[in-house]
Amino acid sequence: MAVRLLIFGRQGAGKGTQSTRLSERYGAPHISTGDMLRAAVANATPIGLEAKSYMDAGQLVPDEVMLGVVEERLAEPDVVEHGFLLDGFPRTVVQAEALGRFATVDVAVDIVVPEEVVLERISSRRVCGSCGRIYSVQAPPERDWTCDTCGGEVVQRADDTPEAVAKRLAAYASETQPTIDWYADAGLLVKVDGLGTPDEVSERLTAAIDAHLAR
């Protein structure tokens, strides 16, 4: 059975880890906003070329263009056959309403982690500038902030400072939280506690999704 999922959660809530696991469990392609944009640009579709013009200019891709990119991706054979797990879209109620015009959503999942916890997680995160491996202040590389995998320099990203994270969390509260509430009003939302080990969170997620699908 094709399952069509949306995944929400504050930055640092563990969406990436859990999306990969959910994609494997349900056989649905994990599709992020960035993946869709890169694919549309690489395929040089008309909507992809339009998106590229905004990206090259350093501008946000407008809703109508982003929706075209999403609609294109969701019409591809792997999605038609296996469903989807959308990560990072929709971000606003306007996008959610528009998505509903060309796609059915079975479950919207909100991984709930308190703001102070994700602020601490992201602020302590460190990343290898060469291979992208993630470390933290609590779990650093073995020596001198040099990546254990490739030997690259491990640094704090500019958008992981407490000030930058606070801005992103504020944007999430003002834009995405109303979208989550919109799916709750539609009877499609399940909320799952995101604290604990990745295995513990995965068990909660799959139990909540399976229970909702079985209704």
Tell me the fraction of residues in β-strands, as a range: 15-25%
CATH topology of the domain at 3-113 and 188-213: Rossmann fold
The percent range for helix content is 40-55%
Strand order of the largest sheet: 2-3-1-4-8
Q: Which CATH first-tier class of the domain at 3-113 and 188-213 would you pick? A: Alpha Beta
Q: Overall pLDDT, averaged?
A: 92
Order of helices and strands: EHEHHHHEHEHEEEHEH
Q: What is the helix tally? A: 9
Q: Assign the CATH architecture of the domain at 3-113 and 188-213.
A: 3-Layer(aba) Sandwich
Return residue spans where pLDDT drops below 50 for at least 5 consecutive residues: none
| Distance separating the two termini | 15 Å
Question: How many individual β-strands?
Answer: 8
What structural class do the secondary elements suggest?
alpha/beta
Characterize the overall form.
globular
CATH superfamily of the domain at 3-113 and 188-213: P-loop containing nucleotide triphosphate hydrolases
Largest sheet, in brief, is: 5 strands, parallel
Compute the CA-based radius of gyration.
18 Å
